[in-house]
Structures
1.
Amino acid sequence: MDFRIGQGFDVHAFGEGDHLMLGGVRVAHARGVVAHSDGDVVVHALCDAMLGALALGDIGRHFPPSDPQWKGADSLAFLRHCDGLLRARGWRVGNADLTVICELPKLGPHVEAMRRTLAAALGVEIDAVSVKATTTERLGFSGRGEGIAAQAACLLVRA
Ligand SMILES: Nc1ccn([C@@H]2O[C@H](COP(=O)(O)O)[C@@H](O)[C@H]2O)c(=O)n1
Ligand SMILES: C[C@@]1(CO)OP(=O)(O)OP(=O)(O)OC[C@H]1O
């Protein structure tokens, strides 16, 4: 088999703070998120997609929220670890497509930095990483500004 596919989804509630970590990029915002780690929904969704592609469980299995060593952790470290798991099995990310779901902040100005950061962490070309943003037209928890979500799809190819 030459390809594997995975998908991931993550949500964090907004809480105290003045910035969000999204795709490894610090984005100024009137709120932070409630999370055990740095709460980077984009990276968490991508990790789950990568793990899912090889049926390796999910991010919480590899980095349990009950484990104090992950408190405040840089989620890019999770991503590098997941990439290492894939590469140890002979796979790498062929491409990944990410959607961030929030009313605010507006993410257009940050998309290229996220693509660059994620591609560097995965050791792939920037063209292999897509980051998109959408609102939910003010509907639901995201529309009410209660939190932020991200979806990820990724294809693995032979390294
Ligand atoms: N947080 C966001 C949400 C959306 N965008 C950009 O706006 C476009 C329109 O959003 P709709 O939800 O009305 O479809 C979207 O395609 C994004 O380009 C954004 O930058 N940040
Ligand atoms: C990332 C981990 C790390 O403990 O905790 P959180 O930052 O709370 O994020 P979540 O998306 O709930 O994933 C579970 C955990 O693996």
2.
Amino acid sequence: MTKICVIGTGYVGLVTGSCFADLGNTVACLDVDDTRISKLKNGVMPIYEPGLEQLVSQNVRAGRLSFTTEYSEALKETEIAFIAVGTPSGSDGEADLQYVRSAAESIADLVDDPIIIVNKSTVPVGTGDWVADVVRKRRGGKALEFHVVSNPEFLREGSAINDFMNPDRVVLGSTEREAANKVAQLYLTLRCPIVITDLRTAEMIKYASNAFLATRISFINEIGNICEELGADVCEVARGMGLDKRIGPSFLDAGLGWGGSCFPKDVKALAHMAVLHGTQPQLLQAVMEINRNQRRRVIVKLRKALGGLNDREIGILGLAFKPNTDDMREAPAVEVIHLLQNEGAHVKAYDPQAMENAGQMFPRLTLCSNPYEVADGVDALVLTTEWNEFKQLDFDRIRGLMRQPVIIDGRNLWDGERLRAQGFNYYGIGRGNHLPD
Ligand SMILES: NC(=O)c1ccc[n+]([C@@H]2O[C@H](COP(=O)([O-])OP(=O)(O)OC[C@H]3O[C@@H](n4cnc5c(N)ncnc54)[C@H](O)[C@@H]3O)[C@@H](O)[C@H]2O)c1
Ligand SMILES: O=c1ccn([C@@H]2O[C@H](COP(=O)(O)OP(=O)(O)O[C@H]3O[C@H](CO)[C@@H](O)[C@H](O)[C@H]3O)[C@@H](O)[C@H]2O)c(=O)[nH]1
């Protein structure tokens, strides 16, 4: 049993803290956001993540998990402090480290016993050394025995608990092998490969992994765009490719492109690091450009199908950047809605979890309480997030409600042939169906 402190109670901090508590450790989760902590103290989750509420309440009841806004309370007798604060994109695409700095300074101010500081946030290569400098400078001459370990997180929103508890690997980087070994002990019961390396390599593994996954998606989207012109079906192409063991089937779903709180900012940050150090990240630039175009292509399709967008009614199914989350950061739906509204379209939408976030983001968006309300009177329906709830809709009812039977399936979720047989003008992504010019 280890006494742990997790700084930041967002998607990563809260999941990390509750999972470590569940594995038998004593965990204090800390956040500077009062509202978030009082919600958590009352058993209310500040984010939607399947299974999280139960995991938190179980471990709070067992006395292994607590929440606070007080650094002094959270850091009391802590052996390992995880920094899991946000690292958003700055103005040039570089990662903004102000929250990491503030967390490191608070540790430096309040701790006198030996401590391991673990960077779990996604941070630029070199940040581990920088955190050590920040702590040393802040201490002035006051001695502190501490080591910095990089432990990037690979969980996905929507399946975060399962990903944390069943990782493909755990990556640890440190200049001090003993410190990395101590952190490794926390993960031993998960029985997964543990890669122990130096700080900078560990930090790069995180960026390279995200950039590679984003590249796969942009690649298949580019293939999809070519398929559309040549009359091939990208879904079948991806299946045929993915059966090759060297390629594998994951992350080959063509659609509106990648969004979320990680891929966009991390690919940008990696490209920024490259440029800063005199390297041209040509592939990363193309990967980002393809992704930007993927959203715009939907607008082009709609314009063609409806002969213009001014005063058209468009229905959007799905607002979160992917299913099983309420997170709308860089969600494809956000850009699609902006582009539609800019062209004078009236937009209605529904999402099973992201309605509250959407209401704050789009004052002019009509929020509906189910897919049928969205379909009512629209000229086109656009599927932007492949929630389970959208998989089996009553399309006869939808056909009867819509003003024009145009469907853009931005996630290739539905059976196009069946929908065409039901009277829809169905357009998937990369599925070889041409629109008239
Ligand atoms: N979201 C994901 O799926 C995911 C997965 C892997 C890695 N990451 C990385 O993990 C980090 C955290 O991401 P997230 O999505 O959990 O962020 P988030 O925005 O959901 O949460 C960050 C939390 O940190 C708190 N915070 C900010 N400054 C603080 C401070 N000085 N002291 C204490 N708390 C502070 C904020 O109030 C907020 O609650 C990022 O670097 C991200 O790139 C995210
Ligand atoms: O074949 C695919 C797979 C995903 N996506 C899109 O890609 C984005 C990201 O999806 P996913 O990776 O499932 O979600 P995240 O929760 O953002 O997780 C990514 O980002 C996290 C933060 O760094 C990492 O920890 C995870 O390993 C990494 O998968 C979403 O918009 C998806 O719709 C596709 O378009 N096609």
3.
Amino acid sequence: MSGNKMRLALVQMHVDAGNPDANFERLRLKLEEAVNGDAKPDLIMLPEMWNTGYALERIEDIADPEGRRAKELLSSFARTHGVQLIGGSIAERREDGVYNTMYVFNEEGVLTSQYSKIHLFRLMDEEKYLRAGEEPGRLEAGGTPAGMMICYDIRFPELARKLALGGARALFVPAQWPNPRLHHWRTLLTARAIENQMFVIACNRCGTSGESEFFGHSLVIDPWGEIIAEAGEEETIVRAEIDLSLVDAVRTKIPVFEDRRPSLY
Ligand SMILES: O=C(O)CCC(=O)C(=O)O
């Protein structure tokens, strides 16, 4: 991190549905790859439900109790490498059910925030197997206020706007967004960036699981809506440098937040 600049690494990876051991092993290798590039990233981000995938019928049995196993790996990696880690999301088992939860660790390996997906995706039966979170997700990325949303959440612009009004200047979105909705994925993420004049950083999985195909296309979009990095469909580490001062420049040029008329809508 230098000034307002921040180097990002997004881990776009395959997830083996129903096989946490294989996914932990794959993630370990990917994390090593992420820190071993030419320039060490300040922040690493992972995709949605990377520990179990969408093996929902077995999710009670394979979800991570209180996220202990994931927390141990993520915290120790963040501390060892002095990197902030936005741990995608995992299937996390709590006393009252299984949640789809994001953890954020700082460079010392301390868990600084967490968020459980609040909109469950009925097209994939999430509401039958998972419990919904009840609060929006906020974090600090390199000292800057930011928001978190998971996959289907991006269809709810009210949530992104609420986070932006609360000070968020970047939005982090882990996903398992499948074919054939690439057009929705790119358009919705770009719209959230343009309308809220903030960075949108979205890490999708790739590969196939049963009938579902995941197209990857992880994205980093700036507050003007320009795509500054986009992956293809294969496993990869997407690297990008963002300059957070661009948020102020765009908000000054078109003062959307000053021009809102919330009393009328
Ligand atoms: O909204 C979509 O089209 C995809 C959402 C999704 O796959 C999810 O939330 O897991």
